[in-house]
Amino acid sequence: MFLKNTHADYRSALDPRDAETLGADAAAEVERHLSFRDNHAQTPLVALPGLAKQHGVAAIHVKDEGHRLGLGSFKALGGAYAVIRLVLEEAGERLGCTVDIAKLRAPEVMAVARTMTFACATDGNHGRSVAQGAELVGARAAIFVHAGVSAERVAAIARFGADMIRVDGTYDDSVREAARVAWEKGWTIVSDTSWPGYERIPGLVMQGYTALVREALRELPAPPTHVFVQSGVGGIAAAVAGHLVLEFGAARPVFTVVDPARAACLFETARAGHPVRIAHGAPTVMAMLECYEPSLVAWRILSRTADAFMTVDEEDAIAAMKQLASPVAGDAAVVAGESGGVGLAGLMRAIADPAVKADLGIDAQSRILLINTEGATDPGRYEEIVGLSPAVVAARSRKGEPA
Predict the structure, then answer these.
(1) pLDDT tens digit sequence for 28-82
(2) How far, in Å, CA of 241 to CA of 301, rounded?
(3) What is the mean pLDDT of residues 213-240?
(4) Cα separation, 283 vs 149, whole angstroms
(5) What percentage of residues in the chain have a pLDDT greater than 70?
(6) Which of 75, 172, 259, 307 is catalytic?
(7) 7 φ, ψ to 5°?
(8) How many CA atoms lie within 13 A of 307 on its CB side?
(9) Whether residues 215 and 338 fall in one domain
(10) Cβ–Cβ under 8 Å, residues 68 and 371
(11) Within-domain flag for 403
(12) Mapped to the 3 state alphabet, what secondary structure does the chain carry?
């Protein structure tokens, strides 16, 4: 399914709060924070000229977040960053002075952190980031996971010392339970989705994501003309789209939000013209995108900045994973998890449909930017789907060597 953005706010200016959250100054501060992380390194921007030629476009680049901060997902940029910011702010209030990131490990700051507990709900990746951030500062983390989160993903979070709490139902059920328990116990909820009265912390999470956009824009030989970004509650899509609007203004690239057909909360919100909660149906292979209600802040941004919304099916996501693992001759392989290649799935589906291709203005001069939002965060599941282990694909990822 495909639809163009017809919302009344389309192409209007960002809300001032969102412009401040996602602007150049805020993004530069995120990168400064990252410079204090011991395991920080810029993630690769992978050019796929063979695939671009195959699809009749000028260029396809993939920002590969499967290498981010040892967590294998773009979410590493959000939750941990928000935790660190919140600790610094709390320390500043208690100590009566501004506390800079450079003093994060000062004894008096660590003493404050030890009194704090950070909670969140997760499909896997966001929880890892929050737990890692809490471990980094010496705080406690309580991570709520729903019934569909695999044991392997739970173990990957628990290794950071987090308390793991299982919740019956869906991701959205775990979000509500995490908020309820955190309120009762006085914990700080660090969610990547937002609801009425709860916007600032999800805004910090989204702010963390701007680092990947700045890195990509510095490396691209020319600005992109088209961007396809996958969506769960909408945080990564809104962060990228919002930052691109602030960077390029009216000359911004055409931006398409890609949803799983089985969990298309942004698509249905765009169709309705207002945030909607969709019914829970069959699970999707795109596990990190299985969300049934959008973030209010993300929708506020995307209603203004997204040009189109589309859905992809299960087989589309699997085809994209396999395409990236076994690329066109001459291209590098990319290890993309079940949700990681969904932007590419959207691109391939759009190009295959002449009407959609024309609506998006994709032609021989188009320069496409995609984000691999996760690597093989569940290696067993990855090998089951792709037929190759992530290690084999990674070992053969040098340009020109077929996977």
Answers:
(1) 999 999 999 988 999 999 999 999 999 999 999 999 999 999 999 999 999 999 9
(2) 8
(3) 97
(4) 11
(5) 98
(6) 75
(7) -65, 150
(8) 18
(9) yes
(10) no
(11) no
(12) CEEECCCCCCCCCCCHHHHHHHCHHHHHHHHHHHCCCCCCCCCCEEECHHHHHHHCCCEEEEEEHHHHHHCCEHHHHCHHHHHHHHHHHHHHHHHCCCCCHHHCCCHHHHHHHCCCEEEEEECCHHHHHHHHHHHHHCCEEEEEEECCCCHHHHHHHHCCCCEEEEECCCHHHHHHHHHHHHHHHCCEECCCCCECCECHHHHHHHHHHHHHHHHHHHHCCCCCCEEEEECCCCHHHHHHHHHHHHHHHHHCCEEEEEEEHHHCHHHHHHHHCCCCCCCCCCCCCCHHHCCCCCCHHHHHHHHHHCCEEEEECHHHHHHHHHHHHCCCCCCCCCCCCCCCCHHHHHHHHHHHCHHHHHHHCCCCCCEEEEEECECCCCHHHHHHHHCCCHHHHHHCCCCCCCC
pTM of the predicted protein model: 0.94
Percentage above 90 pLDDT, the chain: 90
Taking a C-beta distance cutoff of 8 angstroms, is the pair 160, 132 a contact? yes
Q: In this predicted model, what pLDDT tens digit does every residue of 357-371 receive, in sequence order?
A: 999 999 999 999 999
Active site residue 53: no
Write the pLDDT tens digit of every residue in 82-107. Answer: 999 999 999 999 999 999 999 999 99
What is the Cα–Cα distance from 66 to 208, expressed in whole angstroms?
16
Residue among 123, 192, 307, 316 flagged as catalytic = 123
Cα separations in angstroms, 229 against 25, 371, 372? 23, 6, 9
Judgement on whether residues 63 and 136 belong to the same structural domain of the protein: no
- Residue 398 binned pLDDT confidence (cut-offs 50, 70, 90): low
Q: What is the pLDDT of residues 154-196, one digit of tens each?
A: 999 999 999 999 999 888 899 899 999 999 999 999 998 899 9
Structural domain boundaries enclosing 170: 79-191
**400: in domain:** no
147 and 254 both lie in a single domain: no
CA–CA dist 38, 277 (Å, integer): 40
Tell me, yes or no, if 123 is annotated catalytic.
yes
> Which residue, chain included where needed, has tokens 């969300």?
291
Say if residue 270 is in the same domain as residue 385: yes
